[in-house]
């Protein structure tokens, strides 16, 4: 593991550069915070609430930077300390089966990553989110969520990884079969998750009959968006923040609203938010994003197949004997900078989609005012940053900054 190995050089520099980019992004973002409230929000923010939103942004951004630094140091220490070679030898001693050994190694790395993240998750939930009035989670719910997540990851993830280990260990064109197999699994989860997986974490209660349900049904008919089921989610069990989404395809679409969203918004605002979500469907965004994900997956598996059992890459991580499971791990580490670039372009595309969905909602509501009011209230209730730095937006934002969204909505007729 020296700089004479080009793989080592690329990996070590990309790991450090990615963190430095994130640090610059955070510092620039914090430098944009100003005590003056943008005029567009003078009707929903007072001076105290705006100061609170800026304090929340500062504390959250700094904490995220700290957690990222700690995780980078732990990763580098594990890598440079020979951790991958040690783990590979350990799992080889457990079982002669390359598939079972690979699953064991992947499980150890996944569990280690979770154990490293949990203290930061705890502090974020019970200190930062609690301090600013968002947290509704109890310690019991917090730990049950993580236990359920581990179990679900094992139930779904281990069979998928076993399939990949088997394919890449047996077939010359394994990347193609891996891509096709995982694509089928992803499509299946699109149907199964809303009905069987999401209820593991949240309670979905059918929306009772009443003016809101009738208005949503009328909106869905007006937007030619057939809805089979309407649900209310107990989001207040974890946070005071609100959200809404729809799931399913064909005639099995379901709309779900967080109870916190219903509690804090007027009926026109709720309808406008839902019209925005319907706009993503009507404008073809859901299918487009799914197609992009499938295409990206093909690239990932193709390159993974080309780098399978690459001795130079293994040497960069201090591992002598090649294996399929570590080939997958090393590839994912190597691919992270590429994934960052891909995510930037995906976010740029997503921001374009958000403008289109906003315009659809304005059309559906016969004017933009209801959505403007709803977005402003969401921004205030979530203490969102009103003045993000363009570089931070470029790296991370899947939605346009709120001031730009409102300006586009006000120019809706034009």
Gross morphology is globular
Uncertain stretches of 5 or more adjacent residues: none
Radius of gyration: 24 Å
| Class by SSE composition | mainly alpha
Q: Which range does the strand content fall in?
A: under 5%
Mean pLDDT score, rounded?
91
Using DSSP, what is the number of strands?
4
Largest sheet: 4 strands, mixed
Work out the helicity level.
Answer: over 70%
Largest sheet, order of strands side by side?
A: 1-2-4-3
Number of domains: 2
Order of helices and strands: HHHHHHEHEEEHHHHHHHH
The N- to C-terminal Cα distance equals 60 Å
Number of helices: 15
Task: Tell me what you see in this structure.
By secondary structure, the chain is mainly alpha-helical. The chain is built from 15 helices and 4 strands. The protein has helices at 6-31, 47-80, 83-94, 98-131, 139-170, 174-197, 211-222, 259-264, 267-282, 285-306, 311-316, 324-364, 369-381, 390-396, 402-410, and strands spanning 204-206, 229-233, 244-247, 254-258. The protein has a 4-stranded mixed beta sheet with strand order 1-2-4-3. A hairpin with a 6-residue loop joins strand 3 (244-247) and strand 4. Helix 10 packs antiparallel against helix 12. The longest helix is centred in the last third of the chain and has 41 residues, at 324-364.
Summarize the structure.
The protein has 414 residues and is mostly helical.
Give the helices and strands, then pairings.
Blueprint: H1 6-31, H2 47-80, H3 83-94, H4 98-131, H5 139-170, H6 174-197, E1 204-206, H7 211-222, E2 229-233, E3 244-247, E4 254-258, H8 259-264, H9 267-282, H10 285-306, H11 311-316, H12 324-364, H13 369-381, H14 390-396, H15 402-410
